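=== RUN LOG ===
request id: a7f3
mode: sequence -> structure
chains: 1
length: 455
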Amino acid sequence: MAHSSSSDNPQLSPDIIESIIDFVAQNSARNWNGSLGKDILNCALVNQTFRHRAQFHIFEAVYIRHEPKYRIERLQNLKDLIKTNPDISLSVQQLFLECRGLEYAWIGEDPTFLNIMESITGNGRPLRKLTLEADEYIDDGYGTMRIPDFQPLLERFFRPFILPFITTLVLDRLENVPIEVIAGCPQLVDLELLHVELVETSEGAVTFHSRPALKRLATRLTTPIDILEKALDLSRLDTYEICRDGLPDLRSEQRIIDAAGASLHVLKIYSLNTECKPVSHSSSTIHVSDHVILVNEEIQSFNGSCSLDNSVRLHTLDMETNIPEDNLLSVLSTIETIPAQNSLRTFSVSCNFGIQEACGPEAILAADWHRFCSEILRITQGESFSLSIKLHYVYSGDSSDEQDNEDLEIEDIDINDRCASTVSRLRSEKLSKPTNLPTCTFDISHTAYRRTSDD
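=== RESULT ===
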């Protein structure tokens, strides 16, 4: 019997194995409970070397977002796994907690959960990211959860396990959150506050001597924004993302921009009221690309702009405008404050039209594109520049039961043809000067969505 030599079964180096596992993990999306899927699990079954790296990715992020009964089971299973294989606790870098059924007390009281936290943070590789959010099923995901007494969570969970270690914090739809939850994180560099109410301690205003030096900040429906100035060192803020939903202007956000000054490189101002989500083919809603646009009939008119005269190192700017309500005015008022000597190299504008006021695709042509082009030419001054314009058109149509699918498809095709024609005219008649510059990279695209009775 012939024996195989080592050359017949070449051994992979540890670096190659890690690269393989890392590639599989990066291309595996986590599901609602954090699982990466069977591909990475299969990698863990190859051999001991594969298992070690695969285990890191499997347990890198721990999700606790179950109903009470299943949460208890999930926590006990995780505790048993760590007891059997303590190396699992070395892998945990991110923790996602969802308060299903508005239950939150377990975070500071459940002995099994607290035992897991001791295992995770007592090994020299502390947590780096915490996401704490209200039940996503409350009020279609927009409801908030008020925590009347935050002190037990602060004392038993945040102070021992979170504040000293994390670099990234995400708070989503929570009220009555003490500012210490943010200001008490000396390593914090990345902060997301999504529909969060911040409060100072009952002792009154607090002076923070060692404030976290943020590099990225994202805010949506967060109050009061002003308190962040006291709690955070914003002089090194690199990226600021503002969700403008519910905002009549950007006065409070302007203070953040000013505090960041020359450190700000990326500014994004956007809205979630025009976010798209897929719907199934079995739905009675039939329209372009099987997408439905979320239209809030009570959207406030947004006329806010911000001043960028101190943001001399701003490299990337993303903005939105509603047509015909705002008609580029907030965008124009903002870019007119950019100094002649600037660092802007990437500018993206999303134009939403038909959202609040019904109009045809051609309405986009009535905006002040001449003034827009003049500002682009002033800002670029012959430097390399990337300009992107995205048009999102919402239209109404008769989608009653009497109208068959073929009629709807014909109408959708007609609308898309009109949009394509409008884009062509916009490019040739309104945007020719900046787009013909040899130093300008230009991209323009459009999408059209049917407004249905379900919206």
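=== NOTES ===
Residues 262-455 form one domain.
The longest strand covers residues 385-396.
=== END ===
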